[in-house]
Every structure is written in C-alpha cells, then in structure tokens.
Amino acid sequence: LAPFSGSLPPYSNFGQGSRADAALRAAPRHGAAQEPPGAGCSQNTNGSCEECLKNVSCLWCNANNACLDYPVRKILPPGSLCKLSSARWGVCWVNFEALIIAMLVLGGTVLLGITVCCCFCCRRKRKQEERRVWQEERRAEMKSRHDEIKKKYGLSKEQNPYVKF
Known about the structure:
Helix content: 40-55%
Mean pLDDT: 78
Shape: rod-shaped
Number of strands: 4
Distance between the termini: 123 Å
Number of helices: 3
Largest sheet: 4 strands, antiparallel
Structural class: alpha+beta
Order of helices and strands: HHEEEEH
Strand order of the largest sheet: 2-1-3-4
C-alpha cells in the first residue's frame, strides 16, 4: 500500500487526537482501578491506608506502613510479605487474620445450621412414617375386631340379607 499523500480537509482531526478522545482516554473505565495505568502500589508507600486501598490490586501492611502489590497468584499474602495481622485489603479496619477467623466462624455456623436442619427434617420424616405405620396397624386391628363382632352376631356382609328364612 502506498502512503496517503493527499491532504485532509481542515475540519478533520484524523491522526491528531481531539480533546474528546483525550478525555475518554484519561477517564477511568467502570470497575477499573482508580490509579492511572502503570502506577505501582509502591508509589503510595508512606501514604495512608485509604490512599493505598483505592487501587484494588494493592495491599497495605500496617507493620511497616507500606503499600504493596497484592500477590494475585496466592489466596493469602505470604508471611514474608506482611503478617496476616498487619495486612489490609479492601478496607483499612479489617485485617486478614480477623477476616479469616470471621469467615471460619461464619462458615462453621452455616454448616452447623444446615446439619441441624437436615437432622431435624430426617427425624420429623421418620416419626411421620412411624405414625403412619402405627395408624395402619391400628386400623387393621380395629377392622378385624369389627369383623369378629359382626360374625358373632350374624351381621357379616358375606351373607345375602334377602335369603328366605
């Protein structure tokens, strides 16, 4: 292809970038980190926890007031990076240690609740089945008693009531 050698009309901004384009490039995208691209978390070291945690990829370490890149390949930051009791992510008032303990307690409570509900439901079904079986046995027993009484007094349904005497 040959390079463009013609001239462009005066109203065209082709290749120059307009102010609107520049504003769109500078505006943060929805859901993106609020730090400019390429800005590392280490720039916020010796700043405040709130400033550091504005960028979701950063981790604040209270022990040395350092803003660190969150190790995304690991679930929890390693102890060599920052102790769990000093590490903050997302909000400054919750450390990882308290978060882990709270999640374990919450998870244990949910599991215990589910187990109790399952046991209660199984017990209720078992008792319901026992009642049904007991009722059927009682009903059969009562029917046999009634049949014996009818037979004793000659009221059984097997005999034809219109037979000559």
